[in-house]
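Minutes, project check-in
Item: structure for the 260-residue chain
Input as provided by the requester:
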Amino acid sequence: MSFKDVLRAIWPALAVLFSTVIIAAFIAEFTYVTGLKALWVVIFRFLRYLLMLTLPLLLLQVLCRWINLLLNRGNGQLVRLDEMTDFSLAPSKIWLIRPIQGIALLMLIASKLISALQIYAPIIGNVTVQPPIQFDPWRFVVVSLIIAALSLLLSLLWTLDDLGIRYFNSRSKELKMLGKYLGVLLPVLFGLYGIANLFDDYAYFEAARHITQMIVVYYPPFVIFGIVHNYYIRKNESELIKQLGAEPYSISINERGMNV
C-alpha cells in the first residue's frame, strides 16, 4: 500500500479531525472543548483513542487461536473461501459501514455497562462517555477497557470477513457467515438506542447535539483503525489462517446447482 493510497483512504478522517480543531479553536465550543487549547486537546484525544483501538491488534492472533479451539470441533470446521477474500479499501466499507459499526457498538456497550454500574454507584452517568472537565482516572480506565474490548471484537469479525472465513457443518453441509459486516442495520439501530439512553436526561435538541459531537469525536480514530486493521491482516494473512485452523474450501456451480 503506497503513501498515496493511505492518504486517499484516510482523508475523510483527517477532514473531520481538522475541521473539529478549527471550529473548537476559533468559532465555538465543539466536542466538549473550546479556545486555543483545542489545538492540542483534540489531536491528543484522537491519538489516545486510536492507540486504544490499535494496540489490541497485537492480541488478534491469540484470539484467533482461541476461536480455533472453540469452533473446530465435532462436525464444525472453519473453512476459507478464496473467492470471498476481500482486502479492498472500498469507500463504503472504510468510511461508512465499519466506522458506524464501531461507534454504534461502542455506545451500546457503554450504555449497558453504565446501566449495570449504576446499580452499585448511582452517581455514574453519561459523564462516563463524555470527556470530563479534568482528568478522571476512573473514567479513563472504564473507557479504555470498553474500547479495547470492542477493538478485539471488531478485529476478529472483520478478519473473518476479509479472509473469507466461514463455518462449515459437515453433517448438514451448511456454510455460515461469521463476520459479514456484523449485519449492517442491527448494530447501528441498537447502538443509536444506546446513545439515546446515555443522554436521556437532556432535552431532545441537547441530546442530539451531544450524540453528534460523540460521533464526530470517534469517527476519525475508527476510520484509521479500520485501515490499520486492513494493513495488519494483509501482512499477517498466512499466520492468521494458520491460527484459525481454516481449511481451504471451494464452491463449484454446475447445471444442477451448487456443489461443495
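Outcome recorded: The helical segments are 3-27, 38-54, 60-71, 91-120, 137-162, 185-198, 204-235, 237-244.
No further action items on this chain.
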